[in-house]
Amino acid sequence: MSVASSSFSLDKELAYTKLEEENGYQNLATSESTALFQTCIPYLPVEIAVVCLMFNILIPGFGSILCGIVNFCCGKMQETVKKEDIPMKVFINLLVGFMQLMTVTFLLVGWFWSIAWGIKILLLSIENQKRIKRQKILKEQKQKCKFAFNYAATDDNNDDDEIPPRLKY
């Protein structure tokens, strides 16, 4: 992928981010086919996601409840949602955790569900961390590209007969 095409895609992504933030939306996308309950799982820092998984293994549903509570301080929703819908998404997380805890007595269904949910929380957090790293790299490349083009534009004042200083060996 060339620098120009990567900077174009970054420009497009940043424009969408700005537009959605102006309209009161958070800019994080997910696939259309995921269920309502799964779209309520927030992106958490990986360390907190590991803690939620451990709690879901030890006390079924507790990690899911913790995930819902922690969402207020350091989580971001998977999908583009209005900011006033976030409490509803958190409530669904709390409800899922409570249902996991209540269904443990029914052939340990809640415990297996809780472990699967904890793994999903961790996988989404790792995916989000990788996405953030890719965005940082793209921004750095874009800044380097802008610097190079700005430097080339400022050297246009040189005489035609003279070789620009950056090209001399």
Descriptive overview:
The model is unreliable at 1-8 and 24-33 (pLDDT under 50). With 169 residues, the chain is mainly α. Helix 1 (3-22) crosses helix 6, helix 3 (46-58) runs antiparallel to helix 6 (109-154) and helix 4 (62-74) packs antiparallel against helix 5. The chain has one domain. The chain has 6 helices and no strands. It is found in: Membrane. The chain crosses the membrane at residues 48-74, 86-102. This is Protein SPEC3. Its main location: membrane.
Describe the structure concisely:
The chain is an all-alpha fold and 169 residues long.
What's the main sheet like? none
Name the beta content range: under 5%
Total number of strands? 0
Mean pLDDT comes to 76
Number of H- or I-type helical stretches = 6
Task: State the shape.
Answer: elongated
Distance between the termini: 30 Å
| Total number of domains | 1
Residue share in helices? 55-70%
What labels describe this entry?
169 residues; mainly alpha; 6 helices; 67% helix; disordered N terminus
How does the SSE layout of this entry go?
Elements (H helix, E strand, L loop, with lengths): L2 H20 L13 H4 L6 H13 L3 H13 L11 H17 L6 H46 L15
Helix pairs in contact: 1-6, 3-4, 3-6, 4-5, 5-6
